[in-house]
Write a structure and sequence with these properties.
The chain is of the alpha/beta class and 369 residues long. It folds into 2 domains: 6-239 and 325-368, Alpha-Beta Barrel (TIM Barrel); 242-323, no CATH class. Helices cover 43% and strands 16% of the residues. It is built from 16 helices and 12 strands. The chain is globular, with a radius of gyration of 20 Å.
Length: 369
């Protein structure tokens, strides 16, 4: 959210005990500058977040640069990509980035990957969205490199001969997390042993998360993988103790942006039960028709997005985001833990804005069970 909370940052307890089931996404969406991200990582460590996630964009949010800067200015907190388009770099380059982060700063890096956005986003980029088999192959190549293996591969992910990382850090390899929306087909892919963990999409309800986790665990059992070996992360938009009317608009803007995304928008509407006249009215707005190859937050004005956001039912925002007092937000976040998520990734607001929430989370009754 855009509310200024520098006073919260300075009031954050120094060296708070880490909370092992709460992480936070930094610099979500389009940002005019990446500079605030480093201080936000410092704040997140001070407040006790387990780790920070960075959703890479091919503008001013290069994951290797920013995560390296964040790790250099902190001591404990984990740093992860959330998610990386897996075809954006050759697998040896992605593997080298992870190995370098582990080597320089200790085993704190997590590689979050996804198929990438729709092909029209990446016209002229030299890479594009991949299918699920290619995603799995690329993830396996990266994992094999981190395990010290020599890779020989010829397939949909490319052709590689004698691919190896000669110098590996003396610590456990980075974990690989598969980010996906939560649809049944993707949930089955998520059970593949190449992935250590699974992260779902922001702005999906606790019921969607529960169904996706159940589908992934069932597939793990079917293929002979111990379902308890899977680790699930649920991103949840939070706006604790902020102006509620303004917050609802901010959350609704995010809904509008998501609904216009190819594949993701219709799938999210179906999973969340948002299909119907309201969704159709939003999709038929003129701003959708002129969005072109980019996303709405890149191609239309802020005022137009706010106008569109007024068409989003308030119920949608409250079902899929944590809004209101810190205590109310904690109750909503707990629903995702109850749905089976091992870790909740706070999304859309800064660590400082979530200072009260993470303290309330520590003190909730469930924390003593």
């Amino acid at each position: 959210m855009s509310v200024s909370t520098e006073s919260l940052a300075t009031a954050a307890p120094e060296g708070a005990t880490p909370v092992e089931d709460i992480s936070i996404t930094l610099l979500a969406g389009r940002v005019p500058s990446a500079a605030p991200g480093v201080q936000q990582a410092i704040d997140a460590e001070r407040l006790g977040f387990k780790r920070v996630w960075l959703p890479e964009r091919y503008t001013n949010k290069d994951a290797g640069v920013l995560l390296g800067a964040m790790a250099a200015r902190t001591n404990r907190i984990g740093v992860g990509t959330g998610p990386l388009s897996i075809s954006a770099r050759p697998p040896i380059v992605t593997a080298a980035m992870g190995a370098t982060l582990h080597s320089a700063f200790g085993p704190r890096f997590t590689l979050g990957v996804g198929r990438g956005g729709p092909p029209q986003w990446y016209q002229g980029h030299g890479f594009s969205q991949v299918d699920y088999p290619t995603l799995i192959d690329l993830a396996q190549i990266i994992r094999d490199l981190w395990d010290g293996k020599t890779v020989h591969y010829d397939g949909s992910a490319g052709r590689y001969e004698n691919l190896t990382l000669v110098d590996l850090p003396d610590c456990p390899r980075p974990q690989i997390v598969f980010f996906h929306l939560g649809a049944k087909a993707a949930s089955k892919i998520a059970a593949n042993p190449v992935f250590d963990a699974v992260a779902l999409a922001n702005m999906t309800t606790p019921d969607v998360v529960a169904r996706s986790i159940a589908a992934t665990r069932a597939e793990a059992e079917r293929i002979g993988r111990d379902p308890d070996s899977l680790y699930f992360v649920a991103p949840v938009t939070t706006a604790p103790d902020l102006d509620e009317e303004r917050t609802l608009i901010e959350v609704a803007v995010r809904v509008v942006v998501y609904l216009q995304l190819p594949v993701l928008g219709p799938t999210m509407a179906k999973l969340n039960g948002w299909e119907g006249p309201a969704a159709d009215e939003i999709r038929n707005l003129p701003i959708f028709k002129r969005a072109g190859a980019g996303t709405l937050d890149q191609t239309v004005s802020r005022a137009e997005l706010v106008d569109a956001a007024r068409l989003v039912p308030e119920r949608w925002c409250r079902e899929a985001a944590a809004i209101g007092t810190a205590a109310a937000c904690v109750r909503h976040v707990q629903r995702y833990r109850d749905a089976g998520a091992h870790e909740v990734d706070l999304y859309g607001s800064t660590p400082a804005q979530n200072a009260g929430l993470i303290q309330a989370w520590r003190n909730r009754p469930e924390a003593t069970r």
